[in-house]
Amino acid sequence: MSGPAGGRDAMGLRGWSPAAVIGAAGWVRNGGRAEVPGGADPRGSEEGDRTGEAERRRSRRGRLRRTLLAALVTGAVVVPLSAAVRPRIPAPAPAALAPLSVATLNATYRANRADAAEASRTAAAHGDRGRAAKDRALASPARDLLAFDGRGTGRATEVFGDLATARRIAVLVPGSDTTLDTYDRLRSGAQNLHRAVDGSTAVIAWLGYDTPRTLSTGALTTTGAERAAPLLERFVGELRGALGPAPRISLLCHSYGTAVCARAAWADVQDVVLLGSPGTGLDSVADLHTRARVWAARGTGDWIADVPHLRADLFGTTVGFGTDPVSPAFGARVFAAGDGGHSDYFAPASVCLAGLARIVLGRTPEVPRA
What we know:
This protein is α/β, with parallel strands linked by helices. Helices cover 35% and strands 13% of the residues. The protein is built from eight helices and ten strands. It has an eight-stranded mixed sheet, sandwiched between helices. A two-stranded antiparallel ribbon has the order 8-9.
């Protein structure tokens, strides 16, 4: 879940946010009635105006959720059978590499750049000029790739900074709709963070799993996260095997990526940060079974705040992600994210980016104002 609330046109759902789609599950669970937080009491003259507005919101929300329930059913049936399924871009299989170590880092970077160059040529021959250009950019001598796979929607792991000497490492784990074609968004966030920390910190953009589409049933369940978590655990294990126990490692996880990180939280890391999370599918920090500091933040302009934090059985599938990670019930350390939207957590000079830099450096970020 990394896209903005509007601007999509899948299944005729132009302008609909995933928050609203997930809301349909809440409508089902609530017996077809709109859910209104707070349960406002109409009694009392001072509350009259607010009660009227609450009733209008209830009515609007109820109509919207009934409409979106139909959309969710359509998505469950139509998306797997339609052209919304992502195309399979041809590319060679990744080269076999030596186990990661400080001694093999440069050879790993060279091999993955060569793979990206070959993938670019293959995509061009296939007629996909857009993917060819993306792969060609990754093949630049200036890029340090720990991993690359140009097949299908693609995967890439890129390093910013000197990984061999890093005292601290931040690993960015993206949300839905992140592919090689949209990878520049993830890369930009990693670059912004790298500029915000000191020179002894390396930042890694980890597109190491197949992210779900935002407007798909895959983005409404934790199934993809359960498949992705072992890949993230393995990657952290490779970092530890190559660099030893000394570097401080932080997982900075965005949107659907928070569900991935929650399932990999037992990995050997010092911080787990949940940004713009719809929920992790777990009830509390205790369920992460980690000794790491667990943080959570949400910008005041993030549409993910409208996602009902529940889990419901919908046509035999569990939909939704449960407890809100910024709520006291979850138990994370909540820090300030400013007024940004869902895609603004790594924006330059932002409140959230400053907080993230402090977490990566082992310090304490600013807390939200009451």
